[in-house]
Write a structure and sequence with these properties.
The protein is about 40% helix and about 15% strand. It has about 400 residues and is α/β, with parallel strands linked by helices. The two termini are about 35 Å apart.
């Protein structure tokens, strides 16, 4: 069965995560993705040595594989005339150029939107930005930790307000992935438009922009006239919902604020059905007035039994409650395995790692598997030969450092 993007060629000039995750998903959808790297390779290749020092080597690098599986790897020196020429030949046959290289660097390389789109009007130029193309921060180095999490207000305002207040730590790559998802959607929309009109397009997705949009509710309610003020305490957040410790020292989250009609069911499960009809707690406004009181009722009740007990009560009374996973326990989650959200990936070393599966779920795509990515320049010779280079020319390029 043909995949949706069969026949589409993507040239990726990107490092780290935000643009490469978009490239990986394009490959999952059937596109041919050719990743162009410098001789030293994508800097993200070395991140595995930081996070997984005991399981990291050139043949086993799951932190890199998760965002780069399914690609072909070509190494070119774009500062060398021969390397630049090969890049232009690649782009001449491509449908999409995907990059997160900073605008000033693209300009120096002659790969900026103005020059490339003039040469290849049918090309879709997909740019992953940090802080946007304009303004004082436009050409600053940007990562999800800085542009997405820090600038959006998340790290400061989602921390608990307390006497020893400190901002929270950002998760690795999560903001990058959000931005990659949007860029994927824009590319697919541009490909559909190109099929109808034959015209290329310029599409972009920015870390700072996505950070603002994904925290849009918080940004809105913290403005006048809404008057919300973050950070907040746990009690101020969503009582009677929110997080509660159980007798087994595990935590549960009750999403009752999103289903307020279930509050009486929750209180009945906690052994306090009388609270649901107490005049002090009849309306959301009244519950806001005495959040401390209702929080203490719930906090003490949850401490009387285990998390599994309360999960079962949630089933019996049909109110939304889940146990808080840790990053380390997600891989034991029965629901994740039942739906194929996790997979076991075997490496040449014989090691088998559990990794998240591709989030692409389409009948026309079928089951997707993560395959360990190959090394820098693994496909350079083959791709250059496809572009019309002779074996002698390829050898000369490699000897001159224009390719690897």
């Amino acid at each position: 069965m043909a995949k949706p993007l069969d026949g589409v060629t993507v040239v990726e000039l990107a490092t780290f995560v935000a643009a490469p995750v978009c490239g990986r998903l394009l490959a999952d959808l059937g596109a041919r993705v050719i990743k162009v790297e410098a001789a030293r390779g994508d800097n993200w290749r070395g991140v595995g040595s930081v996070h997984c020092p005991n399981r990291y080597n050139k043949d086993e690098n799951p932190v890199f594989d998760i965002y780069n599986t399914g690609k072909e790897f070509v190494s070119l020196n774009l500062k060398a005339p021969e390397g630049k020429e090969a890049m232009m030949k690649l782009l001449s046959g491509a449908d999409v150029f995907l990059t997160n290289t900073r605008p000033a660097a693209l300009k120096r390389l002659g790969l900026d939107t103005e020059e490339i789109c003039a040469k290849f009007p049918g090309l879709i130029y997909a740019l992953l930005l940090g802080y946007g193309e304009k303004g004082p921060d436009a050409d600053k180095p940007a990562f999800d930790s800085t542009a997405f999490w820090s600038k959006s207000g998340f790290l400061h305002d989602q921390a608990l307000r307390r006497d020893d207040f400190a901002p929270i730590n950002p998760p690795f790559s999560m903001g990058d992935t959000v931005c990659g998802y949007l860029l994927l959607a824009e590319i697919c929309a541009a490909l559909l438009r190109k099929e109808k009109t034959g015209e290329g397009d310029i599409v972009s997705s920015g870390l700072f922009h996505n950070g603002i949009f994904t925290t849009g509710t918080m940004t809105l309610i913290n403005q006048r006239p809404f008057g919300k003020k973050y950070p907040v305490t746990r009690i101020e957040h969503s009582v009677p919902g929110g997080m509660y410790r159980c007798s087994d020292d595990a935590w549960v989250y009750v999403g009752i604020s999103s289903a307020p009609g279930k509050i009486p069911d929750m209180l009945a499960a906690l052994g306090h059905p009388e609270v649901a009809t107490d005049p002090n707690y009849l309306t959301p406004e009244m519950r806001v007035v005495d959040k401390e009181g209702i929080y203490e009722i719930c906090r003490k009740a949850f401490l009387t039994n285990t998390s599994e007990y309360w999960l079962q009560k949630g089933v019996e009374h049909d109110f939304p409650i889940v146990k808080l996973n840790t990053y380390g326990s997600v891989y034991e989650d029965e629901q994740a395995w039942a739906n194929g959200y996790l997979e076991k990936v075997a490496f040449a070393s014989g090691n088998v790692d559990i990794m998240p599966t591709s989030p692409i779920e389409m009948k026309s795509v079928g089951e997707l598997k993560t395959v360990p990515a190959e090394g820098v320049g693994a496909h350079t010779r083959r791709v250059l030969a496809e572009l019309g280079y002779s074996e002698e020319q390829i050898e000369a390029m490699m000897a001159a450092g224009a390719a690897k």
